[in-house]
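[job 4471] stage=fold_predict status=RUNNING
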Amino acid sequence: MTSSLHRITSVLLLCLPLAAWSAELNGRVVRIVDGDTLAVLDGGEQQHKVRLAGIDCPERKQPWGQRARQALSGYVFDRDVAVEWGKRDRYGRIVGKVLDGERDVNLALVRDGMCWWYRKYAGEQSPVDRGLYEAAETAARDKRRGLWTDPDPVPPWEWRRH
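[job 4471] inference complete, writing structure tokens
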């Protein structure tokens, strides 16, 4: 009995972070603000600013900032996407995972070395996504993809502090 209860509890706890994505926004990407922010126009012609969850791209004036923006544009500009989300940030932006069909665009940016996996917010991701994003960043770093070609890339949270 205790073993079964423990297994059920474990499964339920693993599912909790998945429940954080409580809403889905569907629409066309009409603007790329920077490497981790875009605007989606929904079916009702309302525009929503979306901050990509789980990642942090270089700032516009930072090395790789424009390339990250171009990479995001190449993936989704003028395309229909789904955004799985569960919160808004302090600026009122939707914070979510952008999906182009089955492709997790946030994860693709990490794989391409265009951004950092934002560990500060890892607790808001599902255990599966945490593992995927961490592995993607490690692989990009090891293979010296994107910003990892720089011998000492400065994370955007440090760049913003200065």
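[job 4471] summary: The CA atoms of residues 31 and 39 lie 5 Å apart.
[job 4471] exit 0
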